[in-house]
Write a structure and sequence with these properties.
Transcription Regulator spoIIAA; 13 strands; 2 domains; alpha/beta; 14 helices; 437 residues; single chain
């Protein structure tokens, strides 16, 4: 009987101690210098939904484990953190960043930009979307989290970082008055395609005005249609759970004679290839895609050319859209006209050429001026074609230097263009009306 009383008393003391410690923890303030042990119960973690973008990324396994030491992750940003120039390595880093926010045991992340010389707006915006969504997720879980880092290596990269990058979106940088910079912020309250189309036109118009030029009413209508189709496509094709963003960064040189801008469209969700495989794709386009695969299959080569990359290139061609129908004659023409217009307008008097890239799934397509959009007569109709080979033959395999298959897959589509605004050059082409209508 005595032993039983001792056991009961011991259990009672243990319960009182647990309650006392729980009360202390409840009223204790978080000490940022203390090492916390984070063992979040699975039930609590599962009860809180991931934010929309993080959810899409996790569902698509857009995760890669970085080096972890003492619950601290160091993200090393590469020399070129840019989806135009260095897409595969940049995607690998973005996967590590996403992993950092989905693992609840991580207490701190350090962004090491010390080697970064080229900071692409596309990679920067995706980083910012992941970070902001990740912070929201950690806040809901009530898990403290610290972010630290350093600055990029070059003045141009620092300018993007401060004015349009992570510092800006974390509201650490309050630099709204840089006289040489024009911005298009991706984080707007209303993500309607109409509003963002208008914002893109306004952004580009402001870029032109800085160099003494502007779009005419006719030019505004043209770009409205081109940009409108791209934003509509992003809304429709990214899927029901998808999200999309548009961002722009423009900087003049110190003499304000010429400016260089970037415009990037980013959708998280279905890739172009996945979108074409949807049941809602029109029967006409399905037949064309089946025929395309049969025609291209002998050229398929592991890591070089496959059905996904073949369909993605094919989707860029004139009037190839999964929603193509007789009642919408212009559907499937916007992307190719957008490319053509920026290839004309985006040059400089020194013959600096604009760069453009499309990244969708594992397929990366670079528009660097090596291959141009050329009109060809097909079944009696003259249509624009870009096949990325010397023959400009869509039935043949493209140049592997401009159409590549990445090891890493991006769940969605990124369209980025880097362009110049040079008033002297624009004056030369103004009278020629070389813009595709």
């Amino acid at each position: 009987m005595k032993k039983r009383c001792i056991r009961i008393q011991g259990e009672k003391n243990r319960i009182i101690k647990i309650a006392r410690n729980k009360k202390k923890r409840k009223h204790k303030k978080y000490d940022p210098n203390r090492k916390y042990r984070l063992n979040l119960p699975t039930s609590k973690k599962n009860s809180i939904k991931l934010p929309k973008v993080l959810n899409v990324l996790v569902e698509n396994n857009f995760l890669s484990k970085p080096t972890i030491k003492n619950k601290i992750i160091n993200i090393h940003i590469p020399r070129e953190f840019c989806l135009i120039r260095n897409s595969n390595i940049s995607l690998q880093v973005l996967k590590e960043i996403n992993y950092s926010f989905t693992m609840t045991s991580i207490e701190k992340i350090f962004f090491d930009y010390s080697d970064c010389e080229v900071l692409g707006l596309d990679a920067s915006v995706i980083t910012d979307v992941i970070v902001l969504d990740g912070l929201k997720y950690r806040e809901k879980l009530k898990i403290p989290y610290k972010l630290n880092g350093n600055f990029p290596k070059t003045p141009d990269a620092i300018q993007v970082f401060i004015n349009s990058g992570l510092l800006k979106h974390l509201e650490i940088s309050k630099n709204d008055s840089d006289p040489l910079v024009e911005r298009l912020d991706p984080f707007t309250k209303n993500n309607s395609s109409l509003e963002l189309t208008n914002n893109v036109i306004k952004y580009y118009q402001n870029c032109l005005r800085r160099n003494g030029y502007e779009l005419t009413s006719k030019g505004i209508d043209k770009f409205n249609n081109l940009v409108g189709e791209i934003t509509d496509n992003m809304t429709i094709h990214c899927g029901n759970n998808g999200s999309w963003f548009v961002s722009g960064h423009f900087a003049q040189d110190k003499n304000q004679n010429i400016g260089k801008g970037t415009l990037t469209f980013i959708s998280f969700g279905n890739s172009i290839y996945e979108s074409l495989k949807e049941t809602t794709t029109s029967d006409k386009i399905k037949r064309k895609l089946i025929q395309r695969t049969k025609q291209q299959k002998p050229f398929f080569e592991f890591g070089i050319w496959n059905e996904e990359s073949s369909w993605t290139v094919f989707a860029l061609q004139y009037k190839i859209s999964r929603l193509n129908n007789p009642n919408d004659k212009d559907r499937g023409t916007g992307t190719i006209k957008f490319i053509k217009n920026f290839s004309i307008l985006g040059k400089s008097i020194q013959n600096d050429k604009p760069l453009m890239a499309i990244l969708s799934g594992k397929t990366h397509i670079l528009f660097n001026g090596k291959y141009k959009i050329i009109n060809k007569v097909i079944r009696g109709n003259e249509v624009p074609v870009i096949a990325f080979n010397k023959e400009n033959d869509i039935s043949k395999k493209p140049d592997k230097d401009v159409v590549k298959i990445n090891d890493n897959k991006f769940p969605g589509t990124v369209i980025t263009t880097e362009f110049y605004v040079d008033s002297k050059y624009l004056k030369l082409i103004k009278e020629g009306d070389n813009v595709e209508q």
